[in-house]
Amino acid sequence: MKLEGIHHITAITGDAQRNVDFYAGTLGLRMVKKTVNQDQPSVYHLFYADERGSAGSDITFFEFPDAARGRPGAGMVHRIGWRVGSPEALDFWVERLRAAGAAPERDSDRLRFADPEGLEHELIVAETGDEPLSADHPEIPIELALQGFRSARAYSADPDRSTALLAEALGFEPVDGVWQARGERRGGLWHYDEPPAQPGIQGAGTVHHIAWASETDEHEAWRERVLEGGARPTPVIDRFWFHSIYFREPSGVLFEIASLGPGFDADEDPEHLGEKLVLPPFLEDRRAEIEAILTPIENPRLAARR
Ligand code: ZN
Predict the structure, then answer these.
(1) What's the 92 CA to ligand 1 centre distance in angstroms?
(2) Torsion region of 272: left, alpha or beta (phi above 0 gives left; psi -120 to 50 gives alpha)
(3) CATH 1.10.287.3510: does it fit domain 6-305?
């Protein structure tokens, strides 16, 4: 039993429209699901990914309107790594990010930048046989597009305390000084860095949790493994598009293990993912109330089609 790399990463935004403009506009991801936070349905939960809404490419945001900026500290993810296919892709992204007002910093085969709320990303030219997971965008040639997650970096004052859970329960393997979760299809890298002196603050522009992907029929067994490893997982929660368990790993990062199925096309035509507000069945009877509270947002992909 192996985890299939990163399933999704969930962060916080204080401004849904600016978030859509950056992730679906500038970065050229596809908004694959526009829904609400299932635990707090008065706020959006926005999902961006490749063209098919694949696990491995899916960054999601809870919107807390006008949330104050947070900052990453110990026990928090502080940077998200994305694969790109070539050094030429980095050349392209330097120009595109500058034009969008970001300040990308290039360091040989990497390009670092932050989103408008300070969430850090890194584009990495990566040699891998994993399938590239890209979205179609009229301004971004497909060979230069983001290709899904490569890695995530978190802060930990004492990363050794995470070793047993990662290695024994979760099956991560040390590769060149970093951890790798690799299954049959995909892998994802996991790094710990020395934390800044100041404690972290959860807020806009910070990561809430990182989810690792499990085969759908192995999801229950992962919960047992996590329990045996000494962490305290939640019961399995049905998120409708996937099943989830959550637990804190010993360095303090909130981990989720999410199943690969059913997937985002379980309730929407793949041609029209993310175009309408989708509610899980248990919230459907509150649709009018929920829609009245949410700020309308414009998806640049749909705007371009008009
Ligand atoms: Zn999640």
Answers:
(1) 31
(2) alpha
(3) no
- Domain segments of the chain: what residues? 6-305
The pTM assigned to this predicted structure is 0.97
CA distance 26 to 99: 9
Q: How far is the CA of 99 from the centre of ligand 1 (A)?
A: 31
Strand partners for 31: 48
Amino acid type, 70: G
CA distance 149 to 80: 8
Query: Which residues neighbour 254 within 8 Å (Cβ) at sequence distance 6 or greater?
Result: 208, 209, 210, 246, 247, 248
Q: Which residue has the tokens 């390009």?
A: 111
Average pLDDT over every residue of 111-133: 97
Work out the mean pLDDT of the chain and round it to a whole number: 95
Q: Tell me how far the alpha carbon of residue 70 lies from the centroid of ligand 1, in angstroms.
A: 19
Band of residue 240 on the pLDDT scale cut at 50, 70, 90: confident
